[in-house]
What we know:
Elements: E1 2-4, E2 7-9, E3 13-15, H1 29-35, E4 40-42, H2 43-49
Parallel strand pairs: 3-4
Antiparallel strand pairs: 1-2
Amino acid sequence: MRFTNGEWLYPESVTHEQFEPNSKRRILIPNVCRTFNVLYMDTFDMLRCLRVKF
């Protein structure tokens, strides 16, 4: 979640994968999101934003 130009921007994708620019064998969701300028976050950031407690 980001605050830009007076409004909150919410991620359009949540994934457990991490950005890996040199990945050749698999297509990773974060790599695709960055290519197409789509907001994403990992699972732990989502839980933190939602203030989930276990």
